Amino acid sequence: MREFSVPATAAVAPEENLTDMVWANAERFGNTVSFRRHVDGTWVDVTARDFAAQVMAVAKGLIAAGLEHGDRIGLVSKTRYEWSLIDYAIWAAGGITVPIYETSSADQMDWILSDSAAKAVFVETNGHRKTLDSVIDKLSELQHVWQIEGSAGAIDELTALGKDVSDEAVHERRREVKADETATLVYTSGTTGRPKGCTLTHRNLLSEVRSALVLFPEILAAGNSLLIFLPLAHILARALAISCIYSRATVGHTADVKDLVADLGTFRPTFVVAVPRVFEKVYNGAKQKAHAAGKGKIFDAAEATAVEYSQSLDSGGPGIALRLKHALFDRLVFGKLRAALGGRCIAAVSGGAPLGDRLAHFFRGVGIPVFEGYGLTETSAAACVTAHGASKVGTVGRPVPGTAVRIEEDGEILIKGDIVFSGYWNNPEATKESLEDGWFHTGDIGVLDDEGFLTITGRKKEIIVTAGGKNVSPAQLEDRIRAHPLVSQCMVVGDKQPFIGALVTIDPEFFPAWKEQHGKAASAEVADLIDDADLVAEIQAVVDEANKSVSKAEAIRKFRVLPIDFTEAGGEMTPSLKLRRSVVATTYSADIDAIYAK
């Protein structure tokens, strides 16, 4: 199939904007718990009425500071309650939010604030302020800097500044904003070149939200809860947070992944959102813990049962023997895994990259279906999703309501609909290259089946062409190799080379257990064991298994284990955990050369 579309279920009116629901909730459902804030080790409720009052107070401060309708305002912070509060306050004051990852360098901060001509910026910490101060002299448009943390916090400072501004002044300002006006400039992670500012309108995000409400009525239900630990600068987390405002589900924030298990246990969400690497970590951590405790055989049998059970759901359902086996492992293993997510989690949402068939089957078999989505910043998050009753493991689902997907002759995926951005800020050339007659050229490669389910097979710019002319998509091999507990990252190489190779990094969390299991010195680093026969044999087995999914010409013939992992700090990963392939290729050029040395 070349094209598939799903009709819209609800239109966005021209006068609507994202702030409307804040006051609708406050007036009609004022006691609804919209957020739970983590304060001094406990969760504190914030009702819809409280939230609207706080948004109003901060918006008044922004107006009092002289900010005008359409002004861009930067926001540099970890995931926390104040992020959402400030986001809505900017919109209520008629402004445009410009999120910046809190891990951004001075150069990145300078580029985004200068390119967007931001008039003001919120920073979270003294460290962010120091980074900003190193480039602030170059930011001629910047008039205000507010810091969330500190003796005079941004929220209190703006509340005091705006005390003489009337409620009606805020309502007048926010009502001036129409559906087709810009709500946010979200700068892409920049796997290549300078980040580009995606111009997303209120209509774009409202269309995305309404699609989510139609597709996920079970999880986006009033009274349910979402714990967000992805950066809110990531469009997926932000779109779901906005969806919770509309569905009156409760949102919690946690910024530090090392606190995640504890926060899941106390917040007890009904669903979570994450990138695939997080689900890989949950699975690998559980497997490592079981093996370390001498219960590895039980876990492995439970894992196989979960996968078999999930697969059976797509082919007539489980038989009596499988149901009994599944019930046994539910008591022994699966219940404990659900308890680690707080005990109330009924589903999860994964985006940013493919999850992989085995992990998807594993979590569904455990009782936590992971709904996969496919989309980009340019499509306001998900353009396709799997959902209850419309799910095929291995696909990213059908287009969301109001969206069409087309496959070009070369396999490229094109997307059209109200979720598609209006263009790149200050970059007409890039806009012209990516938007044609309303169709967004994603740069990804995929196929549509006869029921409209989309499968992603690779990225156009990442296609490797060997010296023999064979086109190879690296994602299929990388996903399978990375799913192994011992592996952290994998990058397939081989462009213009005689065969396919790979760079592999070792998972630092699983490595200590592996050393103990194989009699290696506890003090040994990865660099000490790169040529170790046991380590090489285990990675070779992983590679051999991955190679079964491709033809002989596409298979990995040689690999190199690297002494250190790819990280955001090292520049090899984006803040949304995507590989910066050009950086890896440059940094590890000697290792790549060694793969192809005679």
UniProtKB/TrEMBL annotation:
Keywords on record: Fatty acid metabolism, Ligase, Lipid metabolism
Family, per entry: Belongs to the ATP-dependent AMP-binding enzyme family.
Gene3D superfamilies, alphabetized: 3.30.300.30, N-terminal domain of ligase-like (3.40.50.12780)
Upper taxonomic lineage: Bacteria, Bacillati, Actinomycetota, Actinomycetes, Pseudonocardiales
Catalytic reaction(s) noted: a long-chain fatty acid + ATP + CoA = a long-chain fatty acyl-CoA + AMP + diphosphate
One Gene Ontology cellular component: membrane
Pfam families named in the record: AMP-binding, AMP-binding_C_3
Domain AMP-dependent synthetase/ligase: 24-425
Protein's recorded name: Acyl-CoA synthetase
Superkingdom of the source species: Bacteria
MF annotations from Gene Ontology: long-chain fatty acid-CoA ligase activity
InterPro entries: AMP-bd_C_sf (IPR045851), AMP-binding_CS (IPR020845), AMP-dep_synth/lig_dom (IPR000873), ANL_N_sf (IPR042099)
The keyword Secreted belongs to this UniProt entry's keyword annotation: no
